[in-house]
């Protein structure tokens, strides 16, 4: 603590740590600070003096100072008093500055790591989806054509294993989006009763194979709510999937109840149960009740983490009740969020479904397939060649050249074409060719993040389908495009 006059002459001091002073006290008493301090520091203190005198308030400054070869940081609080004096209280804040710098560095490193993680996940999505596209597609074709039951069972094992790998990939990608706060909710009015009924029906064959009973108990009236339908479907799917997977005998029951403001879904099973001390653990990412070499069940440990995150994104809650070897009950509560007029309107709407059998267009349409992965090219051509004339190229430059010389009714455009022109660049050049402004160009890609789809549509593609897809998905897309244009 120092007392000085307005001109900067040191009048008095008090310190408990003289060893950190810029110079011993006897060297500066009675002297002007410009004789003692470095020029930059003298200027800094004089500005603080003026501010304190003019404002009648405390002025604060922070500055570095080299003390015995070590740079330390100090904070000074300056206040005017007695009409002609200033009091400067100075403290060493080197530790605080160090901690703040470390926090800033850690934040920058975390942001860089998050960026790297996002890029890694995008690349992983592409590199896994492309071979999965071939595995699932050809397994499906072989299963359809096989007449040998044993061989067909082996083929379906390959197909189911590929599906499991795809589900794992989707879980990881979805978790990364939620973890990075990049998921954008899409609210629509949803028939909750119908949605749950559809999901329950999907698991009935699995339950029957395990000799367990899967039943539902719904409100007498249909329940409608305004929320993100995809998230709710994933939540219900995850909970029923877990209940069936962890139940070896007995039953799984799904209940739906509602009041004026909220609806509640209960998924109750008679399975292995969860110890009470593990209730919090099961909602943590990559964690399961049984772990390590003793792990009894398959899975990534992300299903319940995503379930909880999805529910909280929709302003809901989830709780668990369980007893080991007795069973488990998950209860989720979500707001309905629908005004009466909207509710009545939604309840009266006739539900329609997309057909899986959209007829092929009359006359064979000409398709240009641009695909640099040989397996994917053969698979797609196998899928659609019965209904369409297909020409295949592997490079963007070849696609532009062929489009300039021929008229195609649609283009299936892979995005990652290896070295040279990308699928986006090829799309933009094809759009510039006379007669191609309104020709559908479908992005057929293993880049399956939500932002990828938006980007491809923004830069010229008219439609999008993510690998891996099955035969019916691609044919339905093409058939629907041409049915609209006919």
Describe the structure.
The chain has 13 helices and 17 strands. The radius of gyration is 34 Å and the shape is elongated. The chain has four domains: about 1-90, 2-Layer Sandwich (Beta-Lactamase), CATH 3.30.450; about 115-180, Orthogonal Bundle (Helix Hairpins), CATH 1.10.287; about 185-350, Heat Shock Protein 90; about 365-485, 3-Layer(aba) Sandwich (Rossmann fold). The chain is about 45% helix and about 20% strand. The chain has a five-stranded antiparallel sheet with strand order 2-1-5-4-3, with helices on both faces. It has a five-stranded mixed sheet with strand order 7-9-10-12-11, covered by helices on one side. A five-stranded parallel sheet has the order 14-13-15-16-17, with helices on both faces. The chain is α/β, with parallel strands linked by helices and about 475 residues long.
The CATH topology label of the largest domain is Heat Shock Protein 90
Q: CATH superfamily of the largest domain, called what?
A: Histidine kinase-like ATPase, C-terminal domain
SSE order? EEHHEEEHHEHEEHEEHEEHEHEHEHEHEH
pLDDT averaged over residues: 81
The best one-word shape is elongated
What proportion of the residues is helical, as a percent range?
A: 40-55%
What is the count of β-strands? 17
Strand content: 15-25%
Q: Structural class of the secondary structure composition?
A: alpha/beta
* CATH C-level class of the largest domain: Alpha Beta
Q: Number of helical runs?
A: 13
CATH architecture of the largest domain: 2-Layer Sandwich
Task: Give the neighbour order of strands across the main sheet.
Answer: 2-1-5-4-3
N- to C-terminal separation? Answer: 87 Å
State the oligomer: single chain
Radius of gyration over all CA atoms, rounded: 34 Å
Tally of structural domains: 4
